[in-house]
Amino acid sequence: MKTAQSLVQERQPEEMEKTPIVSMHQVGKVFPNGYTAVENVNTSIKEGEFVSFVGPSGCGKSTIFKMISGLISPSEGELEILGESGSDQQQQSNDVGFVFQDSTLLPWRSVIKNVMLPLEFQNLSKAEMKEQAEEVLELVGLKDYAEALPRQLSGGMRMRVSIARALVAKPKLLLMDEPFGALDEITRQSLQSELLRIWESQKMTVLFITHNVFEAVYLSTRVAVMTPGPGKIASSVDIPMPFPRTDKVRTSHQFSDIVGKVSQNLKF
Amino acid sequence: MEHTSDNLHVKERLEDHSKEREAAAKRRRNIMNNWVPPMITFVVFLSLWQFGTQWFQIPAYILPTPTDIIAASIQNSDRLLASATTTILESVIGFVFSVVIGVGAAVIMASSKILERSLYPYAILLQTIPIVAIAPIIVIWFGSGMNAIVIIAFTIGFFPMLSNTLIGLNATDRGMINLMQLYKASKWEIMWKVRLPAALPYIIAGLKISCTLAIIGAIVGEYIAGIGGGAGGLGYAITVASTTMEIPYLFACGIAASFLGIAFFLLVSLLSKVLLGSWHESEMNVEN
């Protein structure tokens, strides 16, 4: 287990710790119908990294995520998550959090009850569950909305609830599959800053899918560029900009240079 | 930042009062819009019936006037009440069975595609057989009286419960189920925490159909398996009234049966409001 201090140091890509939280070796997925979704994926994601996967639709981003989350298993290669091979991931449910493009909240449950959902599969008392849920709701700035129902919230607020639900079990690894894809640009930018703040305070590893290069560069310590047919990681670009990243970063020369570089790699 | 949000809260509170007044006015308008037109239709219909039959001198054994029917119900109120009680009992028991067994069967079918494929066609088959055709067999098997009538009421209300619940369970959002699988939730946890609540609007739609069908089932059952004496239900009372030519009383029984159906339906609607009111579109007063 890493101490908080060593994790803070990992923020600088060059001094990163060598513990891979996810490691993929020659991973490929061929579906039963013969379709090759991804092939030859080699990557190692270290604790504390924020890695974005960018690429066009159909490049296998979601397939990689489904393999990491254990929803499907790879047909080739080796995949290890938190030191365990992909086939036996009993411990994983508490250690990995998920956020999808759709907030997937239960409409009949209040905000706090939605956030408590992942805890219901652990042996916790009602009071402990409530306490932890309130803690993450405070973290995402929705403390006052604990008793509201999802339909009473805006799209951005629903996404915050979804993020709170993913964080409530204190995961080591957070998987986000185009979480801000359905939001308007203003909400999207404020949630990006919010996410960075949470990532820095919670000291966890985030894997983030997007097809927005600006979003990927702004958020990440590293961007994995994917190309389709069949899907593979074409290149991996380190983002050397320091944290905390303010909104000013978005207009800096360095930022647009990196965006340009990543976009260059997207062409195939 | 906090300052502005505080101000917003104060403003919200101030606006609350005028909002309440507006809401009260809206409620009044809604009552006017929703209740007055059907009431007018009702009054016009009753007067046409009353004065039409008098004008054309139609005898009471062909078409009794509303006042004849009211008089007959008051005169025979003991009999009517006893019959109605019997019918209520039969249809409620039959309805409860169709709900429990219908939802139960749907849950079983929804948790296994193979079971659904092998059982559902026969549920449809059961539904297509006219109830009047199988009712005599049910009477032969279970004897005439309460048991047979309850089973007939159950049979008629079962399929709407089954098919509605099954559609609801199968229509659950895929993303929600994926999420639960990621939490390593068991099949039954997914069923209990996600699929059943998500199917609730469909189940309620089934309840609304089945509750009135259960009364029809009970009355059909009484026609065929009715027991005499004081224990007969409304269906039996109708058969008796038609042979003894008590036409106003026959009408009273028919109207009583339809009132039961309405009361049953309103009760289920109330339940629907309680269960879905806060979160489902079907029970919310959406403005646009």
From TrEMBL, chain A:
GO terms for molecular function: ATP binding. Keywords: ATP-binding, Nucleotide-binding, Transport. It comes from the Bacteria. CDD domains: ABC_NrtD_SsuB_transporters (cd03293). InterPro entries: AAA+_ATPase (IPR003593), ABC_transporter-like_ATP-bd (IPR003439), ABC_transporter-like_CS (IPR017871), ABC_transporter_ATP-bind (IPR050166), P-loop_NTPase (IPR027417). Pfam families: ABC_tran (PF00005). Residues 22-253 form the ABC transporter domain. The keyword GTP-binding does not apply. SMART domains: AAA. PANTHER family: ALIPHATIC SULFONATES IMPORT ATP-BINDING PROTEIN SSUB 2, TAURINE IMPORT ATP-BINDING PROTEIN-RELATED. This is ABC transporter ATP-binding protein. It comes from Halobacillus campisalis. The lineage of its organism: Bacteria, Bacillati, Bacillota, Bacilli, Bacillales.
TrEMBL record, chain B:
Its main location: membrane. InterPro entries: MetI-like, MetI-like_sf. Residues 84-272 form the ABC transmembrane type-1 domain. It is found in: Cell membrane. It is a multi-pass membrane protein. The chain crosses the membrane at residues 35-52, 88-110, 122-142, 148-169, 213-237, 249-271. Keywords: Cell membrane, Membrane, Transmembrane, Transmembrane helix, Transport. Residues 1-22 are annotated as: Disordered. The keyword Membrane applies. Pfam families: BPD_transp_1 (PF00528). The keyword Protein transport does not apply. PANTHER family: ABC TRANSPORTER PERMEASE PROTEIN, ALKANE SULFONATE ABC TRANSPORTER-RELATED, MEMBRANE SUBUNIT. Belongs to the binding-protein-dependent transport system permease family. This is ABC transporter permease.
